[in-house]
Amino acid sequence: MRTRSARAASLAILATAALAVAGCTSGINDAPTPSPAGTSAEATPSPSGSATSSPSASPADDGTDDADDAAAPPFTANTEPDTSEPAGSALLTVTDVRTGRHEGYDRVVFELDGTGEGVPGWRVEYVDQAVDDGSGNPVEVAGDSVLQVTISGTAMPTDSGVEEFSGDRLPGDDLVAVDEVVYRFWFEGYTNAFIGVDGEEKPFRAFLLEDPVRVVIDVQH
To answer: Could you tell me the pTM of the whole model?
Structure first.
């Protein structure tokens, strides 16, 4: 009887241990495994939820094309003034100012309209400070360097018969070298504007386009 009791007790102990081991194994195998779809969702945020993405800047439309680019002179190797004399008897007024970003340079376009035959001239140069003609009052222009544009041979709106550009400031949000363009209206045969340039003085070029008449200033990046 004693032997049978001892064997029965040993079998009971072995059965209990086997159940305990089975229970532990079942717990490991039943642990949830993340699905591939769930892992992907956590690692890759959706485009709409991304806080670090930034829209790509697109260049503004300045109204010029490849043919106009081909007519442009080469950039000079310095930052000296660029001048051209007006010709003919045109009575022209600046009616629009536009900017655009191109490969290697930013463009500022002054479009003119009016009566008579002829073309405007210009003087474009870097100045220490932007100052209004006549009053001599300083003009605030965003940028580290200031490029003054003086278009000659222009007329007041009552003589040209067209409405002058409103004079709104043009920020260089989509540009690289140009921070701002500030138009300052007609004064005694000349029309002035200022181009604020980011950083030190950069090479530029000025040239004329016709049909319609435009004075174009390009500033290298």
So the answer is: 0.73
